[in-house]
Amino acid sequence: MANYVIGDLQGCLSELNWLLANVGFTPSRDHLWLTGDLVARGPDSLGCLRRVMALGNAATTVLGNHDLHLLAVANGIGKPNPADKISPILQAADGRDLLYWLRQQPLLVEYTQAIPSSTSIANSPHEPEFVMTHAGIPPQWNIEQARQAARSAETELRSAHYKERLAQMYGNEPNAWHTELSDIEQLRFTINAFTRMRLCHTNGQLDFAHKASLSDAPAQLVPWFSLREDHQDPPLIFGHWAALEGQCEVENVYALDTGCVWGGSMTLLCWETGERIATPCPVYA
Prior knowledge:
The chain is an alpha/beta fold. It has a single domain (about 5-280), classed as Metallo-dependent phosphatases (Purple Acid Phosphatase, chain A, domain 2), CATH 3.60.21.10. The chain has helices spanning about 15-20, 45-55, 65-75, 85-90, 95-105, 145-155, 160-170, 185-195, and strands at about 5, 30-35, 60, 110, 115, 130-135, 200, 205, 220-225, 235-240, 255, 265-270, 275-280. The strands form 3 sheets. The chain has a 5-stranded mixed sheet with strand order 3-2-1-12-13, covered by helices on one side. Strand 7 (about 200) and strand 8 form a beta hairpin. It is globular, with a radius of gyration of 18 Å. The two termini are about 35 Å apart.
C-alpha cells in the first residue's frame, strides 16, 4: 500500500491521470490524497470531480477556495468568474450529485495508522502521520483547535442552511481569531484560514491582499508556516500557493501546488518514500 498526495488539480484531468498511471495507482491497494481546488481554470473540471468521486474510499480530498466558490455559484450566491471553466458541471446530468458530494468534503484531514480519516483523533494514543488542508493552519491554532474549527465549519456547510453559510463566507474580516467572534465570524475566519491563507503579519493576523511569491512579499508579512514554531505540529501538507512552486524551507511542511494550471506542473508526493513526481502542464488559465 502507498499513500500518494497530489496538489491542486484545477480541472487538469489528463495530468492527474498521467501521474496515477505513472505510479501504478491501484484503488484497492493505494490511497490518493488531494489538497483541494479540484475545479476551476483547467479544461476538465467536470472530469476531475467525476474521477475523484468515482474512487470512493480510495481517495480523500479537502475543500479549496475554488471548490467552495463553485458551490456558491451553483446555488446562485457567488458571481461566476469568466476564467473558471465550471459551466459543464452546472449543466451535467449528474451535476447535482457531484455538487452534493463536494459539499460533504472536509476542510482538514489526517492520516493516522494507515487509516484515512476526517474525524478527530483527539482520544487516540497515536499522533497523525500528517495533517492536510488546502491553504494551511493559522498561527493562532494548535492542531486540536484546528480540528475543532474544521468540524464546526464542516457541520454548517453540510447542514440544511448551507446556502446561508455559503453566502456568509465571503469577506476578509475578521483576520484574527478570538473568543469574542460571533458564530458567523468564526465560520468566515475558519474557511478563510483553511482555504485562502498565505501571508500573515507577525502577530498572526491574516493578510489576503498579497498572493505573489515570498520574494515579492512586503517586509511586514511572513508565510503562515513560519509562525508555527511554538506548536508541536505533525507534518503539514497544503496546496493553494502556486507561487511557492512547491518550495518550503520549514521542516515537515510540504507545499504541493506547483502551478499546474498556470503552465507549471502537477506534483505527486509518495508519502512512504518521499519521492516527488511532476508532469508539466500547458498554460490553461
